[in-house]
Amino acid sequence: MPNLLVEIGNTALKAAWSDGMTLGKTFRYQGEKMFEFVQALVEKEKPAVMVISSTIEVNASQEEMLRSGCGKLIILDRKHVETVRDYSLPEYLSPDRAASVIAARYLFKGKGSIVFDFGTTLTVDITDEDGGYSGGNISLGCRTRFKALNRYSRTLPIVDTPVNIRETGNSLKSSIESGVVSGIMFEIQGYLSLFPEKVVVFTGGDALYFAKRMKNSIFVVCNLVLMGLALIADDYVERNN
Predict the structure, then answer these.
(1) How many distinct structural domains can be found in the chain?
(2) Which domain holds residue 189?
């Protein structure tokens, strides 16, 4: 039986079936009935292992419902931290960050990495050559920065992520666009200057947007979290065969 991987983020759900480390079709859902959506995915086919990474804490009734739909259920959330500990990662890491680090260690074994996840937040996580976790930072994501400028000022409009930006703005709108996007680019370059020897990995919804603006050599892995969850599922299968 294949495994089912589920990533519940701040704004949406992403899921995929996997066979070992090979990911199948990806499903996306944005709404309030996320656990019901997962239940619908397993109605026709029961996965051997279901791994869920969730920013939302999975309550007892939801856990019972999910457990009935699979052979083995593995949860990563604020309450279920056993798996994070098993992979020698600090418990304060959010589930998606932990999964990304697990995947980066697997993909770039023997090399240190710096993982940028461009989502609601911009997270930066660093590993050393031995796969150890060196630490990381959190700041506002691109769209969150645009929303914050609008929300916490009286005069600035809401602005969408631009296709192109100027080096310096020549209007109110272009000044916001340039300020936010250039600010993130400066932030990225600052980290790269601190860790020039690291493999650079971009993931998350805005990964491609910022990758196109990079002159450095980088790897874009859009499904990095799901790959980490696939590795967790595969490790469980190998240990129990």
Answers:
(1) 2
(2) 113-220
